[in-house]
Amino acid sequence: MLILGRLVIGLFCGLCTGFVPMYIGEVSPTGLRGAFGTLNQLGIVIGILVAQIFGLKVIMGTEELWPLLLGFTIVPAVLQSAALPFCPESPRFLLINRKEEESARDILQRLWGTQDVTQDIQEMKDESTRMAQEKQATVLELFRSRSYQQPIMISIMLQLSQQLSGINAVFYYSTGIFRDAGIEEPIYATIGTGVVNTIFTVVSLFLVERAGRRTLHMTGLGGMAVCSIFMTVSLLLKDNYNWMSFFCIGATLVFVAFFEIGPGPIPWFIVAELFSQGPRPAAMAVAGCSNWTSNFLVGLLFPSAAFYLGAYVFIIFTGFLILFLVFTFFKVPETRGRTFEEITRAFEGQAREANRAEKGPIVEMNSIQPTKETATV
User: What sections of the protein cross the membrane (predicted)?
Assistant: First the structure.
């Protein structure tokens, strides 16, 4: 029963990680889409922190109470289920998929607190017209069509950059890492990572519409790469220098902070920004599958890697972080302040350019920056 229950939770958790960022992106104003998308990550990290605190022996982390802690999952699930009927249908879905323009207009006006949504409705109409001329986008079509190949590649790589960064190795095995570093009460240091995790997600919430997704993601990856090197050095030298234990804790906390600056929240919601209404569900499914598969592999392989490599295990993540940093610099576009239609048309322009000249230069979307009008929405 325990395994079956965890399986059901995992299945629906996987569904929610795709649906929630997609829904948030579709109901958010263009100028606040990144900030609202980060709220999804904020909810996740708050849940992690609450679980860490409730897992203390003085609360519910005992042999007698751990089943109750496991069943505590039902509380947020019931609250979310009760709140769901009050959430309106996505206005983009209503207009583009069901052709219910008035319903979409009413929802936009109510959600955004303004009567002037003409420009947004027109943008949805344009997307609807273009979708009518396209064939249905399936998962296979995402990899076959030139228009989708680059955005789906970016989506997959961003999900991998989140999970192969080493963050879940830190969270899954942080208590053991801190114990190896010489900390007498490692569980409290682990809770400290949860606190930092939450604080810097809030920081990212305010930065994402100012600095942009691409800049924050590269900053996070670069900072994590440096911290992973420091973590390796501190674990290697902890037996020679007592103060290295504190250095290891500091490097780990900063590692987590940089994660929440970029690689934590951004990969989830940027996938929804890269695709139009038609291929978006399939793209979210591929992205979610990539994320959870890499998550599973890290959890499965990290203990063995740590056993054989010892302190050098984090050098593996350093290599991944540098790889993803280079990829982000050359391939990931800045979507801040751009409508879904503008982003989609930019990728289509690249596809047309590639079709005209297979070996010719391809327009890089990194050069596409938000206009002053859209950037200040």
Answer: 6-24, 36-59, 65-87, 152-175, 187-208, 220-237, 243-261, 308-330
Q: Domain count for the chain, please give it.
A: 1
260 touches 41 (CB < 8 A): yes
Rg of the chain's alpha carbons, rounded to an integer? Answer: 22
Is residue 296 one of the residues assigned to a domain?
yes
What is the tens place of the pLDDT at every residue in 111-150?
A: 999 989 999 999 999 888 888 776 668 899 999 988 899 9
For 110, what's the count of Cα atoms within 13 Å in the CB-facing half-sphere?
A: 12
CB-CB contact of 170 with 257 (8 Å):
no
Task: Give residue 149's domain range.
Answer: 136-351
| Closest among 355, 356, 372 to 145, alpha carbons compared | 355
pLDDT single digits (tens) 260-300: 999 999 999 999 999 988 899 999 999 999 999 999 999 89
Distance between CA atoms of residues 187 and 52, nearest Å = 9
